[in-house]
Amino acid sequence: DLHEFRITESGETALIIGGDRQPYDLTVVGGTPQDGVYDPIVQEVNIETGDLVWEWNPLYYLDLRHSYRPLDDHHGWEFAHTNAVLKDADDNYLISYRFYHSIIKVDGRTNEIIWMLGGMGSDFTFSNGSSFVGQHDPQMTIFDNDCDGVGNDGPFGTSRGIWVHLNYTTMHVTLLREYVPSVRARAEVEGGIQVLPNGNVLVAYGSMGRVAEYRHTGDGV
Questions:
Q1: Model confidence over 4-47: pLDDT tens digits?
Q2: List of residues 6+ apart from 66 with CB closer than 8 A
Q3: What CA–CA distance (Å, rounded) separates 218 from 162?
Q4: DSSP H/E element including 192
Q5: How far apart are the C-alpha atoms of 45 and 38, rounded to whole Å?
Q6: Domain around 165
Q7: DSSP, res 153
Q8: Strand, coil or helix: what is 132?
Q9: What InterPro entries does UniProt report for this protein, alphabetically (predicted)?
């Protein structure tokens, strides 16, 4: 899967996304016991040896009823669509799931979900434009597509980069900055945001075919 290949800070391992179709009982979402899913698995592998270091299977942890994707494929329903994965300094993992409109923090030792940011099962509340739909890039700078490609649009009318603050005491999210393209439009797929060494912010607007650099304040360069 071309969505992710990220070398970790150690330089010894890489984060990748794979998956496979498998039979699965989908009666909980209106399907049948004879249906199937496309199961997107996240792995950390040793670059030199190829040995598996860590693996996470969302099918065992996510509530299928919280997927925003309609049951449109009874043989390989892509319920989650993994966009990106990041390993943090505590050896936990941030994983972005487009069809859940969520970024999920996973405990690297127990594989249990620590919290869910966004979506139907969100552990956080949002204010002042800090929510997102169909997002890519799971760092706390987030590319908000404002749409998920399966008919669910956000309220902002354009894709954008956002910089948010997470309050872990109140479990509330506040928008700090947003980076909006000069011509407002939605990118149905792809996109990313990156903080540059000089503090500026680079936003790639995915299928819109645009890239823009902004000052940290949100002004264009």
A1: 789 999 999 999 998 889 999 999 999 999 999 998 899 999 99
A2: 100, 119, 120, 121
A3: 10
A4: strand 192-195
A5: 21
A6: 5-184
A7: B
A8: coil
A9: Arylsulfate_ST (IPR053143), ASST-like (IPR039535), Quinoprotein_ADH-like_sf (IPR011047)
Q: Is residue 180 part of a domain?
A: yes
Structural domain includes residue 45: yes
Q: For residue 3, how many C-alpha atoms fall within 13 Å in the half-sphere facing its CB?
A: 25
Tell me, yes or no, whether 191 lies in a domain.
no
> Tokens standing for 37?
């899913």
- Does the model's pTM come out above 0.85? no
pLDDT in tens, 68-125: 999 988 889 999 999 889 999 999 999 999 899 999 999 999 999 999 999 999 999 9
- E strands within the chain? 5-7, 13-23, 36-46, 52-56, 82-87, 93-97, 102-106, 113-117, 125-127, 141-144, 160-167, 172-179, 192-195, 201-204, 211-214
Amino acid at 182: S
Structure tokens belonging to residue 185:
């439009």
Question: Domains in the chain: how many in total?
Answer: 1
Is 205 a domain residue? no
